[in-house]
Amino acid sequence: MKKSITLIVFSCIALLSCERDFDAPNPNSPTIASFWQSGEDAQKGVNAVYSTFYRTPGLYSRWMFYHGILKSDEGFGSGGDGGLNNLVSFNQNDYNLGLTALTWDTFYVGIFRANQVIAYVPNIAMDETKQRQIIAEAKFLRALFYYNLTLYYGRPPLMLEPSQPLDVPANATTEEAYAQVIQDLDDAPFPICQRPIPA
Amino acid sequence: MWSMSPIVPVQSDALINDQNPGGWGYGSTNTVNTFSRNQVAVANITSIESNFVKLLGNAFIQYKIADGLSYKFNAGLETSFDKINAVRKNGSWYQNQSPENSQVTDNRSQFFSYLFEHTLNFDYNLGKHSINGVVGYTQQTYQTDFVSGTGLFLAQFGGNYFTTITSTSNLPGDRTASGGLTKYLINSYLGRLNYTFDDKYLATFTFRSDKDSRFSPEFRTGYFPSGALAWRISNEKFFNLDWVNDLKIRGSYGVLGAANLNPYQYIGFLNQGPNAVFGPNQEGVAGAIQAKLASGDLRWEEKKTTNLGFDATLFNNKFNITFDAFRSVSEDVLVPQPLPGYLGNLQGDPIVNIGSVLNKGLELDLGYNSRATGNFKWNVAANVSVIRNEILELGNLGIDEATGMRRDYISSGNTRSQVGRSIGDFYVLRTNGLFQNEAEVIAHNAQADYAQPGDIRYVNLQDDGTTDDINNNDREFAGSPWPDFTTGLQFDSSYKNFSLNVQLYGAFGMDLYNDVRNDLDSYGYSNYRRAIDPWRPDNTNTSDPRLGVSYAAGGMPADRGIVSNARDNSDRWLEDGSYLRIRNVEVGYDLPQPWLDKMEMNSARIFLSGQNLITFTGYSGLDPDVVGVGGENINLEPGVDNGNYPSSRIISLGFSVGF
Predict the structure, then answer these.
(1) How far B294 CA sits from the closest chain A CA (Å)?
(2) A92 at the B interface (CB within 8 A)?
(3) Does ipTM top 0.90?
């Protein structure tokens, strides 16, 4: 009998001795569960949207000017780069070409970031003016990205919430996409887009 | 595949310079351009030393509570300590290699896992009823932590390198370190119940539930039941065929869980990298955002299998037959999903539950045992299996630009894994012999811009009517890496104290992509395989295209026909990979009993065995038993032979004794 009591005690200890926390957080990196809590987080979030401008050569650090100036009458491009020559003469024969694909991909990296700010910042308890400004900036940037996507690609799928791996949005029509751009500018709850133009 | 030009020396004092202190030969623009590695240089410049130590331990206590009821507590522990030291000295090993600093990297990691298992076993018999089983609770913990340091610029004195991190440059930025920890937990309940009535009706039910911390909180626990029923017809009264000794029919259905993933992947982590620059003073400000998408509902991958079959023993227990038909569907398969650009994903493919694969097959085993009582005894067993796999679903792959519909395939190299087909089917251009004269080139039209007699004629499936019309749109499915059937044979015999065992294995009807032959026979290197038989106007009866130089000097147009012949995405490199292999032959001799008695041994046996002695195949590569390409694509390109080390032929002589 004594033996079996020892056994039961021993196995109870083995069962209960170690606390097992199935929700233990990732020790190697903070997760979004601990983010979007303060005004500082909101500012960092919108900073990351601006950072998209030059995270690849696809946007304002370089290629936006190929898409804009070189395709227009303002500029002219020539030389040995066949992909660039095709691009500026509206000869689209490879959608996976960096000039075409990287610009597209980078705009959507920015949109994913702006969508996070627009979705999460309204729930943060913080200075209200600052909060309205940050959301307005994110909406303005999203409008800028969609404006460029629509201008250069025509019918972008409209992602308006933070992306999920299995999202399959339909392509918007050009009219729908421009309507979304105007909507974002109108919605911006801070008058950054309504300043009078200096005479 | 690397093949160095034979006129380049391995090493020469004349080649010594700042970039190449060892004087290793790998060609130059002044002598001969090469694309190959100097493997002797690789071995001299780089070295990796690995030490792995592993410890395993297991202990249990068992307590008999009553007749037929016992409790067992089992504890298992496994730990391993890995140490890897990699040194890279100065120098290059191929032409145009970008210069890299000498450096040393030290990795230390420890893996630790333990298991606590509590089980209650019961066994109960009453008349013709027999019931036994087990219920239990287990806890498993797995933990890995690592630290890694790198130092640049190894110190060098008197021609000797110092290869510890302490000896490297300690200027800012020259030493880097990283480290991390991953841990996950599994708690499980399990149970099994076996019931037998009169040795005629047999039933087994199992159940387990596993809670795994790697999955999303609401989907952590998976429930995996299974059941099997069997009926031994030969024990029924009505069954009286004397030539049937035993006949059992069985069927089962079960669900198994799989968790092939790393922890912490169900929630997005914060990327603190993206900084922005604002204002007239160009001040950097910190940004932070989720960069990599995460599936918030990661759950167990499930494999549901149905099996029907029978076992029979016939003719005085001499023959036995086992037959199985199975169908298994893997659902919610965990895969890193390549995502369309409009999701804005960065930093690698997130793991998601997507994809579903069907496997179905028939398996037949036949055996014959001579049951001889004389000096010569033998038995033979043969099996044949027919297994098919089919992709049922692949997940969110965006839009296919060719069709404008949702894409339903994954391309990897020259394979395409498409819904409705097998994994890794080949998707390539078809070839149709060689052009023998100019008239054939003109008649074919699609290659008229560049082709010459002696060039490969590709089938122009999508005809756009131009004279330069061979491209990726002309590809089609051209073969499967999966065998039509596999078969094996095992023969065991003995005569007095001698024994002979032979094992054969064969796989038939699969196609293989011979990537080694693609490299050699594309004429892309500066040296050629001995047996090539290139087309010439006076040598037209061949399948090897003409030789030539694609590169043109002095503003002349390049020879595009040569480039076209070297396409890797054609059926020219596909071959029938069927083979039959003598996997093992063993001859043995048992020492006679009087000798054993004299030497006080229980048994002693001398044997000579040969593995992989002969392979009968028409395949031209080193080994038709290919393992596919390595790395991430190993599952998507199972039929690609890129020259992996072939199965060794092993001859062994052995002696075993028992005391």
Answers:
(1) 7
(2) no
(3) no
Which tens digit of pLDDT belongs to each residue from B369-385? Answer: 887 788 888 999 999 99
Helix H, strand E, coil C: the string for chain A is: CHHHHHHHHHHHHHHHCCCCCCCCCCCCCCEHHHCCCCHHHHHHHHHHHHHHHHCCCCCCCCHHHHHHHHCCCCCCCCCCCHHHHHHHCCCCCCCCCHHHHHHHHHHHHHHHHHHHHHHHHHHCCCCHHHHHHHHHHHHHHHHHHHHHHHHHHCCCECCCCCCCCCCCCCECCHHHHHHHHHHHHHHCCCHHHCCCCCC
- DSSP character for B540? -
Q: Which of B573, B579, B583, B584 is nearest to B623 (CA)?
A: B579
HEC string of B173-188? CCEEEEEEEEEEEEEE
Record: contact A28-B344, CB cut-off 8 A:
no
Q: How many CA atoms lie within 13 A of A63 on its CB side?
A: 24
Q: Which residues, at least 6 apart from B320, have a Cβ–Cβ distance to it below 8 Å?
A: B311, B312, B313, B314, B365, B366, B367, B369
- The arithmetic mean of pLDDT across residues B178-196, rounded, is 94
Angle A39-51/A128-153 helices, nearest 10 degrees? 20
B423: closest CA among B235, B106, B636?
Answer: B636
Mean pLDDT, 10 residues at a time, over chain A (199 residues)?
Answer: 58 60 87 91 94 90 88 81 81 79 94 96 92 92 95 92 88 93 82 49
Longest C-alpha distance within chain A, in Å?
99
- Is the separation of the CB atoms in B161 and B154 below 8 Å? yes
**Contact status of A75 with chain B (Cβ, < 8 Å):** no
- Neighbouring CB atoms inside 10 A of A190's CB total 17
Whether B343 sits inside 8 A of A167 (CB atoms) is yes
Q: Which residue has the tokens 């199992």?
A: B206
* Cα B303 to Cα B358: distance, rounded to the nearest angstrom: 9
- Phi, psi dihedrals of residue B418, rounded to the nearest 5°: -120, 145
**8 Å CB contact of A26 and B269:** yes
**Chain A stretch 118-147, residues whose beta carbon is closer than 8 A to a beta carbon of chain B:** none
Residue scoring higher pLDDT (B492 or B373) = B492
Greater confidence (B289 vs A78) lies with B289
